[in-house]
Amino acid sequence: MQSNQYSPKHSRETGLCADQDRAASKGARETDNTQTTAAAAATMASVLELPFQEDTQLTEVMRLRVQSLQQRNHRPQDGERLLRPQEVVYRLDFSQQNLRFQRWSIQLSVPGKITITGISQLWTPDLTNLMTRQLLEPAGIFWKKSGEEQVQCYEADTQEFGERIAELAKIRKVMYFLLSFEDGTEPANINCSIAFKASP
């Protein structure tokens, strides 16, 4: 399956999140013959790619909250954000915290759409309910059309979203996300990660 690595540019247009960083790096290597193999290896080593990992325990806690409200015929707390049927909780664990956003890497093995929404605050659903005000904007929206290989995105939004994640990484070691699966996608047919430039 082909990997579609996103390198968003500052544009409000919809487009392919192409391998612009990799292409630019290749061009630089071709024009700069003085770069050594050791320097290139050091540059690659400074790029940190983190996978989005499904958090089944938190997802289950959120689903039980919805189920409990339904069984008791209770209303949610004012401003509470309940987990929707097509949503799953994911997490990023930051092994380093001084990061600069580089690119998204999103793979969809089937046509469809995913929306990644960040949660801005530290959140423990066993102690506090998730509130709408805790959700980051913009969200990252990625989709693949039937008959196409490339994943598309709203480039400016995904760029801004990636930069917000890098900022939040400075003050925490884990961050949670809601992933919404639409138009035929599900956790089994996606592979999502985000790459940062790590500073010493």
Largest beta sheet: what is the strand line-up? 2-9-8-7-10-5-4
Instruction: Give helix % range.
Output: 25-40%
Stated plainly, the CATH topology is called Jelly Rolls
Secondary-structure-derived class: alpha+beta
What sort of overall outline do the alpha carbons produce when their principal axes are compared? globular
- Tell me about the largest β-sheet: 7 strands, antiparallel
Concise description?
With 200 residues, the protein is α+β, with helices and mostly antiparallel strands. The chain has four helices and eleven strands, in the order ββααββαβββββαββ.
Walkthrough of the structure:
With 200 residues, the protein is of the alpha+beta class. It has a single domain (4-8, 47-73, 83-198), classed as Olfactory marker (Jelly Rolls, Sandwich), CATH 2.60.120. The chain is 26% helix and 32% strand. It has four helices and eleven strands. It has helices at 20-31, 37-45, 56-72, 155-169; strands at 4-6, 14-16, 47-51, 53-54, 87-93, 99-108, 112-118, 140-144, 152-154, 174-182, 190-198. A seven-stranded antiparallel beta sheet has the order 2-9-8-7-10-5-4. β8 (140-144) and β9 (152-154) form a beta hairpin. It is globular and about 50 Å long. The two termini are 34 Å apart. The model is unreliable at 1-12 and 18-43 (pLDDT under 50).
Which properties best describe this structure?
Jelly Rolls, single chain, alpha+beta, disordered N terminus, 11 strands
